[in-house]
Amino acid sequence: xxxxxxxxxxxxxxxxxxxxxxxxxxxxxxxxxxxxxxxxxxxxxxxxxxxxxxxxxxxxxxxxxxxxxxxxxxxxxxxxxxxxxxxxxxxxxxxxxxxxxxxxxxxxxxxxxxxxxxxxxxx
Length: 123
Hints:
By secondary structure, the chain is α+β, with helices and mostly antiparallel strands. The chain has helices at 11-23, 63-69, 86-103, 117-122; strands at 29-36, 49-55. The mean pLDDT is 90.
């Protein structure tokens, strides 16, 4: 899933806008991952992509938003094949997130402001 950069819009602003347009969600942990610019990555046109990943607590996700915006959740082991090099983007995002969770408390982004020890242990 993705979108295009609008005039007078930063990459981060575009990522937030596109995430909202696809999910209806705002104010999430969103991080720029990598840029992709291989010449033949999209057979239709020359496309340069900047990938991001977001942390979303799916337990807080409202099913109405999925119906309204068309967002769907998949277990990684059951995800469909993605177009172009998007499987590679997902793999790199997962590797980055796994590395990051070893050294930084990014998981706290998925917890409520006040949380219990069992919630922390589950995370």
